Task: inverse folding
């Protein structure tokens, strides 16, 4: 049974762009100049100052509407739960940064204090993130290697190796914060759009592989020096397999037990998330148990287990970063800043959409920049957010960053009062916690088959980014991933899927003629669509596809016709039957006082047949034209016009039309009358002109030329006055 659908009927004239402009007055709009924008930017009033304050301090907005009785209990519970996770992750991720665990607690505390005031997200948990920790650790190892002398930096004088590494870590973090703050001030938050979800997924998966390999030495309890640079992961695996015979069985068994238990409890948390008011803090529970067992059985002395050791109680005074480290690490600090912001912003966006509030990308850059600079002043390392930690904060009832502030207070309590309890904690436990938290990132490998089936260029981006990041290192891998991603964009725009359209009978809809049955395509008409901008890189491709669509090369046709006319001219000179001055041959045939009926030529003159009389170009998907493309397009249109093919351009963007006018695109051949607002308007106008041309073609002057080209051969050529064109339409 056919579905009854709502019908609509539109009764209006056929419009070209010219006739539409005659019937409808266009609003004249003045675009601001750069000077005008600058003037608005530096002009201040009380309203703008208020808006700026609200934008720079988002806490003012949400704190005024804070529902104390309704939201505070959830924020408190969420803050405690998130704090436990944040403490454990801070301790574990500090190993990735090649720093003592206490600095992970600093990262769980200081950055959150400033994000509370400047951040626009109400749900993300700011603190350590494994990928950033690993990237910072790579810089630390490069400047302060395990073997050999450190880099020649004057600030290293008088410091031991641990202090040198701490100096490098917080200096890199401070520089990272400067980059983020600068990008936020200059409103370049849009830069994150160049990091697609596919690229970020491939990059974080590669980072997870690096993290997994870096933690194997702790899980196995063997001594493997950290390495950086190209193919460092292969060299690290080689050393791990070489020293695997020295595995500490106690470390290995303890790590396996902890990973299995944490993994199973996380499954329970995910499965019963609706029933559990608060997720089970299994990481904290297992850490406490491991500390107790390690202390009770003296794992350090009896089994040679490496433990966290002395924990500094309290906080150190703020210190300035090293400018020399800035100079040495600028190339690494910038991608760290980009990745930190991209991860934080993408997670924040997910929860902003879920809870129906807006976040500001530029303000997030400012917030992360200030947070990292403030934290680095107190020796914390790079901070962003982690999806798992943020999920705990949101699912356990957190409504605002009050929960984040409470989680920071938890880290402060442990640092100031309870840090000594963590001294017997085996580092293998921290390594096991890091590995088990990589599940989400490692499971992203499952995206490869899906991407291959749905979008092969995206799959190439994912695989290219992942492989490059694994083999070349995270910084170079990110650069390679961006290069591959931009190449896919160039590929999509430089080689778009052009199509020939046809009409769906009984409608004003036009679709690819390959996609539907029983479509109507008027004889002698081609409708060509290019679904991309036209610019210097794809104008030649556009012209090639256009020639392929119509089935002939207009320039070749024009040359063949010129050659035929020269033959006619030569024969007439011999017979002296026609004034040779009227047949002087220019580069094209627009100057001669007649046109030839090219469909009726003698056998000894061969000119390829042109089976179309009209070409319609659908520009609905063309968003811009550059100067190079404009010149190429003009040449292509003139080639068709000079072989008597009517050209129509439809659905052209108004700004492109303005550019065509400003660039002197139009002349006595290419006219504004060929532009139409819709494809249907153009087709109806073309059909109307075809009927009129057929009527006028009966009134024509025919001159029959009789000539002997070779011996007794005769040539019969119909010559038509230019003012009375014979279109010979079917």
Result:
């Amino acid at each position: 049974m056919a579905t009854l659908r709502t019908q609509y009927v539109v009764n209006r004239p056929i419009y070209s762009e010219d006739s539409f402009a005659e019937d409808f007055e266009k609003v004249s709009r003045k675009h601001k100049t750069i000077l005008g924008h600058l003037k608005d930017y530096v002009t201040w009033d009380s309203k703008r100052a208020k808006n700026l304050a609200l934008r720079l301090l988002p806490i003012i907005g949400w704190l005024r509407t804070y529902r104390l009785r309704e939201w505070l209990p959830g924020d408190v519970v969420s803050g405690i739960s998130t704090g436990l996770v944040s403490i454990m992750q801070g301790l574990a991720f500090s190993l990735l940064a090649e720093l003592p665990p206490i600095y992970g607690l600093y990262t769980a505390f200081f950055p959150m204090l400033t994000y509370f005031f400047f951040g626009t997200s109400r749900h993300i948990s700011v603190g350590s993130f494994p990928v950033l920790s690993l990237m910072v650790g790579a810089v630390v190892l490069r400047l302060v290697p395990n073997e050999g002398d450190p880099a020649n930096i004057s600030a290293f004088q008088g410091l031991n190796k641990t202090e040198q590494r701490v100096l490098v870590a917080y200096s890199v973090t401070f520089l990272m914060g400067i980059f983020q703050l600068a990008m936020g001030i200059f409103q370049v938050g849009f830069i994150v759009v160049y990091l697609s979800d596919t690229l970020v997924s491939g990059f974080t998966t590669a980072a997870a592989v690096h993290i997994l390999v870096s933690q194997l030495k702790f899980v196995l309890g063997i001594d493997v020096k950290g390495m950086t640079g190209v193919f460092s992961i292969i060299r690290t695996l080689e050393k791990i397999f070489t020293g695997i015979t020295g595995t500490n069985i106690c470390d290995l068994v303890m790590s396996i037990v902890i990973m299995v238990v944490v993994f199973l409890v996380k499954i329970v948390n995910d499965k019963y998330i609706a029933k559990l008011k608060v997720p089970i803090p299994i990481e904290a529970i297992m850490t406490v148990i491991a500390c107790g067992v390690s202390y009770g059985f003296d794992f350090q002395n009896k089994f040679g287990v490496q433990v966290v050791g002395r924990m500094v109680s309290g906080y150190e005074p703020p210190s300035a970063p090293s400018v020399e480290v800035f100079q040495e690490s600028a190339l690494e600090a910038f991608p760290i800043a980009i990745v930190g912001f991209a991860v934080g912003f993408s997670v924040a966006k997910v929860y902003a959409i879920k809870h129906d509030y807006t976040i500001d990308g530029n303000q997030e850059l400012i917030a992360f920049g200030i947070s990292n600079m403030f934290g680095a002043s107190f020796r914390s390392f790079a901070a962003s957010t982690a999806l798992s930690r943020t999920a705990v904060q949101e699912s356990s009832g957190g409504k605002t960053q009050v929960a984040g502030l409470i989680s920071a207070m938890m880290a402060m309590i442990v640092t100031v009062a309870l840090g000594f309890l963590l001294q017997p904690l085996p580092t293998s436990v921290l390594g096991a916690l890091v590995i088990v938290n990589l599940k989400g990132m490692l499971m992203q490998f499952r995206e490869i088959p899906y991407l291959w089936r749905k979008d092969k260029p995206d799959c190439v981006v994912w695989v290219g980014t992942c492989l490059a990041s694994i083999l070349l290192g995270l910084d170079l891998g990110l650069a390679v991933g961006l290069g591959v991603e931009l190449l896919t964009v160039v590929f999509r725009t430089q080689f778009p899927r052009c199509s020939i359209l046809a009409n769906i009978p009984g409608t004003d809809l036009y679709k690819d003629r390959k996609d539907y049955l029983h479509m109507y395509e008027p004889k002698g008409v081609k409708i060509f669509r290019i679904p991309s901008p036209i610019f210097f890189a794809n104008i030649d491709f556009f012209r090639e596809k256009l020639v392929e669509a119509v089935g002939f090369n207009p320039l070749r046709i024009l040359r063949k016709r010129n050659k035929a006319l020269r033959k006619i001219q030569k024969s007439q000179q011999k017979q002296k039957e026609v004034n040779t001055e009227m047949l002087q041959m220019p580069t094209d045939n627009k100057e001669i006082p007649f046109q030839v009926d090219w469909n009726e030529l003698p056998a000894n003159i061969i000119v390829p047949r042109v089976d179309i009389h009209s070409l319609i170009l659908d520009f609905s998907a063309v968003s811009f034209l550059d100067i190079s493309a404009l010149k190429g397009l003009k040449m292509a249109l003139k080639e068709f016009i000079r072989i008597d093919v009517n050209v129509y351009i439809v659905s052209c963007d108004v700004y492109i039309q303005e550019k065509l006018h400003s660039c002197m695109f139009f002349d006595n051949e290419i006219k504004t009358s060929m532009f139409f607002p819709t494809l249907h308007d153009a087709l109806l106008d073309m059909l109307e002109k075809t009927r009129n041309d057929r009527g006028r073609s009966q009134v024509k002057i025919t001159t029959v030329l009789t000539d002997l080209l070779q011996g007794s051969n005769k040539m019969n050529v119909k010559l038509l006055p230019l003012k009375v064109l014979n279109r010979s339409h079917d």
In short: The first helix runs from residue 17 to 23. The chain has 27 helices and 13 strands. The CA atoms of residues 270 and 279 lie 8 Å apart. The two ends are 39 Å apart (CA to CA).
